[in-house]
């Protein structure tokens, strides 16, 4: 289906090609939102309101959307087009509706021409298997007889073929192949039904993951809703919180290990790449994961199912280890539904629910609870029973915009991560000075009135520390920061430049370097991965061209609220004169993935007018707020080519901005450049990481 979608985009026979995933839990309002989003109508689209009114608005929008194809993917049950607001396709409007479903009945009910997708023929299946199993196996004739038998056991199902082939990739031991065939055959023979057999084939890959912690990392992905795209960085943070990644010297090393695990799961086709910076799980692979978590380890996963209350008491079996109820419509958390004791419960995920009330004694009978996520809920306070969670290591309250009061936290002495970002607290919670095991503390809170003197020096294990960058009441002092020898990531606001210089000086002494001048120019910033610049009102250029050779590891640039900034990447006048005014100046950033520009009223260019970007790695350009003078996206030059700019874009690039900004852009250099970038552009507002 993706191939058809991409083909339609290339052919340009239709003005729009819209793809919406329906999923097992059909939700009219979500489908309406997704179609409206694909139509770039977020400004005028009513986020609330009754379904009938929204359906009428959507129907009118689709009628005015020109000739289009609407693809509804993964339809599990009959869908009323009228209820959603989808006009009937006809010859007169030139519109087409395509849907994919596992049920022939659904297709017939909706009046579709049913086209059965048959299993691959034997030769097609073999070709696909060989394309995934590695060149050394393709050339190994000894393995061919047993390999063909394994392909037969995959029953011509592309997902199964790809997953099994990836599991055996590069393996040249004939005995291992014979054992794999025997195991696969036995698995399939012991179950009845098509879906059960598919799950057993996929479980073959899971069981061949040799590291138990990697298996837990995989199962954790099933805690998210079906078809959910998970930010890679968020997923790795989850694994760190759960203890699936062993403690290492630094948090950065642990994140590196997380990326290795991600790559392993992706190589085994248990996870797949989503949109920029995200991963997702194929729904059949997720079904396999859910089948495992119903047995051992035992999870209760009811994420994204539109629940309005907690599951019934009988569903909370005493052997449950993890519960995910994220992305529902639960407004109250009551003790009444729980069994006497959730003795083994270690993880409770309630984020992204409109929860307003939590029973006073709700946390009383959860002695082993380690991870609690209440992010993006509507709670105003937490019950005192949270103080009884003596094994709690992670408490996430990010985006609880109404949260003002927290009980004393002094009893939570195992706590390693506390996230209070975007809450409404005015004071640091009582007992924070007792949380000496904290490694991650996010207090990016604009209402916070002060940082108590003597607090930070007690938190000597901190690796990540965040305060609101524009809250002067939480200004940092070098003396308070000096004991934090393990700090790797810091966001905040220093009292003045002297305090900042003192802090930098202490950091340099810590790494054995008294002044910046002792650093060789070629090593300055050579390991830098992220640059975030906020509210530097006198800065006119961010990165000069001469510095770029030192930034070969730079992955992300975020610039915000710098009122005098004119250029992001600039070339000195002397460089332009030396090369000649018509000569191209290449801005080479081989690992840059993200460029975010916010509220930069005087920025006129991303790079100098004579410059081109050599940046095949670029995945995301975001432009938001007042950036009205930025009217040009620089041309790109591929890493391999003749060095001349042409209508080219990095292969994974996505551009996010308002419609107004996109329409103001100028394309004087190469009008065809717009045609290349248009499919990559999305009219989206900024979405923070939601965990």
TrEMBL record:
Residues of the signal peptide: none
Domain of life: Eukaryota
One Pfam family of this chain: LRR_RPS2
Residue ranges occupied by any Disease resistance protein At4g27190-like leucine-rich repeats domain in the UniProt entry: 518-635
Domain (NB-ARC) ranges: 1-136
The keyword Nucleotide-binding is assigned to this record: yes
A single GO BP: defense response
SUPFAM superfamilies: L domain-like, P-loop containing nucleoside triphosphate hydrolases
Keyword entries, A-Z: ATP-binding, Nucleotide-binding, Plant defense, Repeat
Domain Disease resistance protein winged helix: 223-289
Family stated for the protein in its record: Belongs to the disease resistance NB-LRR family.
Xref: InterPro entries: Apaf_helical, At4g27190-like_LRR, Leu-rich_rpt, LRR_dom_sf, NB-ARC, P-loop_NTPase, Plant_NBS-LRR, WHD_DRP
One example GO MF annotation: ATP binding
Name this protein carries in UniProt: Uncharacterized protein
